Amino acid sequence: MPQLTIKNLKKFKEKISSELTIKEGEFRCMVCAGTGCVSCNSLKVRERLEAELKNRGLSEKVKVLITGCNGFCAEGPIMVVYPEGIFYKKLNPEEIPFLVEEHFLEGRPVEKFLYTEPTIKKKIALMKDIPFFQHQILRALRNRSMIDAENIDEYIARDGYAALSKALSPMAPEEVIQEVKISGLRGRGGAGFPTGLKWEEGRRYHSFPKYVICNGDEGDPGAFMDRSILEADPHAVLEGMIICGYAIDSRQGYIYVRAEYPLAIHRLAIAIEQARGYGLLGKNIMGSGFDFDINIYPGAGAFVCGESTALMYSLEGRRGMPRIKPPRSTEAGLWGQPTVLNNVETFANVPAIIRNGGEWFASMGTAGSKGTKVFALTGTVNNVGLIEVPMGTTLRTIVYDIGGGIPEKGEFKAIQIGGPSGACLPASLLDTEVDFDSLDEAGAMMGSGGLVIMNDSTCMIDTARFFTEFSVDESCGKCVPCRVGMKVMLNMLDRIATGQGTMEDIEQLEYLGQHIKESSHCGLGKTAPNPVLSTIRYFREEYEVHIQERRCPSRVCVDLIQFRVDPERCKMCGLCKKACPMDAIVWEKKAPALINLEKCIRCRSCIQACKFKAIE
Q: Which of 379, 446, 484, 491 is the most buried (most CB within 10 A)?
């Protein structure tokens, strides 16, 4: 492998770019091989495509490459065909011969696999014209679906490691830190601490060795931002870490990734070996005299290890539990030495900042929140996937313009933002801008970037109970407010959901939640009550109906459902009978259904099947 230096990187990049340029009459098929698409057999799609192209003598004309996450996860398996940028969705191996015949021999896109816009029912061929992609601006995800994540040459061809070369010469470490400060980049892991200030603090201490840590311990339910970046563009993270090491005078970095991300770990390992082979990691990087290496540490999956000090204890081989601060980690972190820890998305932004300048990055976003933010958009929304939007984008734009709105004629009810420690915001706050300050004002938090959309069939008490149960299960148990207080809150929510709650429980939940926020030891405990407090703040009437009327308006809390059919609402369609696994529903044509409560197991299958909300 060639040894890349500051002097020869540009020439090598030009050579690789020339080799990868799509020539006249050629095609490049980018098959998504992120975890979501792999689970839908995208690798089998690739195998069948390669075999079919070979059989037809098209292998030289049509190149097939695998990429990381494309972003539009709900539409997988996905393939984008360049140079046009034709977007194919929900492919299956059996129909690949037909696609090859139509697209590569007959020269026409295959309509069957084109995306259909749900609001206007229109087929869209080009990826850039799909609203899900149109409203995004990519910074951390700049190489999304454009490169083979397992080929360092493709990363270099798209300006990879140019920022590292620039940082090592002619920039001094202090200049690197200054550019990061000018950019206004704040930590994307949730706390939002200014990255440049953290690096400056890390450089100020002269105790050695120093460490750089990348936090890839993504434990939020419904979140997959960091995993997708690591799978799709691992070299961007490595480059950001090396630049950080140079800036703070560190020689060793660690990437802490939960073991449940095997594909991310696999691609990281390949990327590290490739970088070492090119002289971009290890001794005398790029001939600059700077030494820095990176190792991967698979975490065991404890949610608390997303907290920086708990993560460092885990790295040291100890039980992952937060420690008291001060001293801060920049003074005494891993093994008591100065340590700078940032999350995956933060490091992925660094190369572009150094290459283009801090002012370039700061030109986008709001006064206190610069750049873009990556979100995992999930829940009851038409377009589920990974998105990146400028700071200051409204929740309404995310839900309706990018997400495509609520499916099946449902109505928007709430958006849960910030992971299990985040808040549930109502429709009245859809015009809230997504930035650190606006979300804080609304009683929410940016978190690492999970967005869960909920429609009108969602019970907010059940939602609060779900996230509270998660926090109880994942509490490290070190401090009493979190360990005991959250369990008490969960018990109260259980009582309300089963018809045993009292109005005093609402006041007690608010009081206890505030006490836990103020007295818990770490940031996780301090934010754990947020789902309960936010649902009481914005959906208080739903709590009151559960308590005073012993009724769940969303028909989710099983103990508060009568399981009777309202004959006035029943359309006599028989869908409930078909859905019932116990044959507990009596139905005849042109007659309202009846539920035999002796047979009924209260599974809610009938409620989910009924389109007319006739079952109470």
A: 446
How many CB atoms sit inside 10 A of residue 69's CB? 31
Peptide bond into 209 cis (omega under 30): yes
Predicted confidence (pLDDT) per residue in 554-593, tens digit: 999 999 999 999 988 998 998 999 999 999 999 888 889 9
Cα distance between residue 362 and residue 139, in whole Å? 12
What pLDDT does 71 receive? 93
Per-residue tokens: 125: 């061929």
- Asked if residues 587 and 570 have their Cβ atoms less than 8 Å apart, the reply is no
Phi/psi at 362 (5° precision): -70, -15
Nearest to 424 by CA among 410, 402, 442, 400: 442
d(CA 290, CA 243): 11
Cβ neighbour number for residue 551 with a 10 Å cutoff: 15
- Give the position of tokens 């708990």: 310
Q: Which two tokens stand for residue 430?
A: 């859809």
Residue 165: helix, strand or coil by DSSP? helix
Core vs surface per residue 487-516: b (16+ CB within 10 A) or e: eebbebbbebbeeebeeebbeebbebbeeb
Rounded to 5°, the CA angle 7-278-172 comes to 50
Pair of tokens at residue 357: 């300048």
Query: In whole angstroms, what is the distance from residue 567 CA to residue 242 CA?
Result: 68
What's CA 174's distance to the chain center, in Å? 32
Distances (CA, A) of 139 to 198, 349, 390, 452, 543: 21, 7, 9, 23, 42
User: What is the distance between the alpha carbons of residues 188 and 450, in angstroms, rounded to a whole number?
Assistant: 12
Cα→Cα distances 158→18, 22, 151, 587, Å: 12, 14, 12, 63
Helix ranges (DSSP H) in 452-574: 460-474, 480, 486-497, 503-519, 523-527, 530-544
Using DSSP's 3-state secondary structure scheme, residue 304 falls into: helix
Kindly give the pairing relationship between strand 62-67 and strand 86-88.
unpaired
**499 and 558 in contact (C-beta within 8 Å)?**
no
Task: Give the DSSP letter of residue 342.
Answer: E
Instruction: Answer whether 146's CB lies under 8 Å from 30's CB.
Output: yes
| Collapsed DSSP state (helix, strand, coil) of residue 50 | helix
> Count of CB atoms within 10 A of residue 560's CB?
21
Give the span between the Cα atoms of 361 and 47, in whole angstroms.
Answer: 40
More confident residue, 189 or 94: 94
Which pLDDT score, from 0 to 100, does residue 250 have? 98
- The phi, psi pair for 209, rounded to 5°, reads -75, 160
Residue 139: the pLDDT is 95
For residues 299 and 281, the answer to whether their CB atoms sit within 8 Å is no
Segment 215-232 shows an average pLDDT of 88
DSSP 8-state class, residue 510: H
Rounded to 5°, angle at Cα 100 from 98 and 101: 65
Average pLDDT of 268-284? 97
pLDDT per position as a tens digit, 179-201: 999 999 999 987 889 999 999 99
Q: For residue 8, what are the CA distances in angstroms to 272, 279, 292, 614? A: 20, 12, 20, 72
CA distance 398 to 430: 9
Peptide linkage before 83 cis (omega within 30 of 0): yes
Q: What does the alpha-carbon distance between residue 403 and residue 312 come to, in Å, rounded to a whole number?
A: 37
- DSSP 8-state assignment for residue 431: T
Report yes or no: 73 and 386 within 8 Å, Cβ to Cβ. Answer: yes
